[in-house]
C-alpha cells in the first residue's frame, strides 16, 4: 500500500523557500514560462490505480472544466507575475526494480533518478518512492510521515485529533501525494528560484500553498480543513474535479490580489 512516504521527494527545479513579513512580496523574476512539462518517475512498486491518480491530476491542471475544478484551482497561480503556466504531462518512468536499492536514498540519489527523465527547458521531474523505500531525511527535517503530510486523510501528529476524512480516490498515500505535488507545483511556477513571492521570516519558507497550510475549504481552522464537498456514493471529501470526473482535495493558495487564502469551496 502506498503511504505518505511515497509522496513527492524531489522536483528538479526546486529552490530554497524564502519569505518576508508581513505580506507576500515580489522580488526579481525570470521571464514567464507559458508551458510546463511534468515528468513522473515512480520508484518501486505502484499499482496502476495509484499511478493514474497522480498522472490524471497533472493532466487536469490545464483541462477545460467548470469550477470547482483542478484547472480553476491552478488558475490562481496566474495571479502571480511569472505564474500561470500551461501544464502538460511528460514522461512516466517506472523503476520497479529500484535501480539504487531500497535506500535510504540520499538527496543526491534522488537527483540521479530525476535525471533519468532527461533535461529539457520548461520541464520538471517529480520522483515518487514506494512505501518500502527509505529516503533521508524524511520524518526528520522533511515531511515524510503520514501524520505530517497526509492530513486530513490521516490523524495528525499534533493538535486536534478529529477523525480523518475519506480520500476521494480511496488511497491515503495517492491522495496525500496529490496534495503535496499540488503545493510543490504551485510553488515552482510562482517562486522557481526562491526569490520571487515569499512571506515572513527568510529563515523559514512559505509560498503560495504553504502560506495557507491546513486550509482546504472555507471556514478552516486548526484541526478542521474547512467546508468541503462530499461524494454521496463513497463519503469521500473533495473540493476539485478533474478529467473524467476524478475527484481531488487540493490545498488553498495565497491570492496576491486579496492577500487572503483562496479556496475552491
TrEMBL record:
Keywords: Apoplast, Secreted, Signal. Residues 1-27 form the signal peptide. The lineage of its organism: Eukaryota, Viridiplantae, Streptophyta, Embryophyta, Tracheophyta. This is Uncharacterized protein. It comes from the Eukaryota. The keyword Secreted applies. Belongs to the EXORDIUM family. GO terms for cellular component: apoplast.
Amino acid at each position: 500500500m502506498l503511504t505518505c512516504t511515497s509522496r513527492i521527494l524531489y522536483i528538479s527545479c526546486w529552490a530554497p523557500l524564502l519569505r518576508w513579513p508581513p505580506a507576500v512580496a515580489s522580488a526579481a523574476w525570470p521571464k514567464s514560462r507559458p508551458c510546463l512539462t511534468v515528468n513522473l518517475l515512480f520508484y518501486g512498486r505502484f499499482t496502476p490505480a495509484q499511478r493514474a491518480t497522480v498522472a490524471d491530476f497533472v493532466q487536469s491542471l490545464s483541462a477545460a472544466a467548470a469550477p470547482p475544478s483542478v484547472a480553476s484551482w491552478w488558475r490562481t497561480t496566474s495571479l502571480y507575475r511569472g505564474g500561470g503556466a500551461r501544464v502538460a504531462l511528460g514522461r512516466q518512468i517506472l523503476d520497479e526494480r529500484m535501480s539504487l536499492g531500497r535506500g535510504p536514498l540520499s538527496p543526491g540519489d534522488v537527483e540521479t533518478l530525476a535525471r533519468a527523465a532527461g533535461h529539457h527547458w520548461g520541464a520538471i521531474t517529480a520522483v515518487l518512492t514506494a512505501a518500502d523505500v527509505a529516503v533521508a531525511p524524511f520524518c526528520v527535517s522533511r515531511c515524510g510521515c503520514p501524520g505530517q503530510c497526509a492530513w486530513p486523510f490521516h490523524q495528525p501528529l499534533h493538535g486536534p485529533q478529529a477523525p480523518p476524512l475519506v480520500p476521494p480516490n480511496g488511497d491515503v498515500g495517492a491522495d496525500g501525494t496529490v496534495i503535496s505535488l499540488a503545493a510543490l507545483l504551485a510553488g515552482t511556477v510562482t517562486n522557481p528560484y526562491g526569490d520571487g513571492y515569499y512571506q515572513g521570516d527568510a529563515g523559514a519558507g512559505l509560498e503560495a500553498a504553504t502560506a495557507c497550510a491546513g486550509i482546504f475549504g472555507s471556514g478552516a481552522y486548526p484541526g478542521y480543513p474547512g467546508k468541503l464537498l462530499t461524494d454521496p456514493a463513497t463519503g469521500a471529501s473533495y473540493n476539485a474535479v478533474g478529467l473524467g470526473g476524478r475527484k481531488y482535495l487540493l490545498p488553498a493558495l495565497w491570492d496576491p490580489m486579496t492577500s487572503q487564502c483562496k479556496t475552491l469551496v
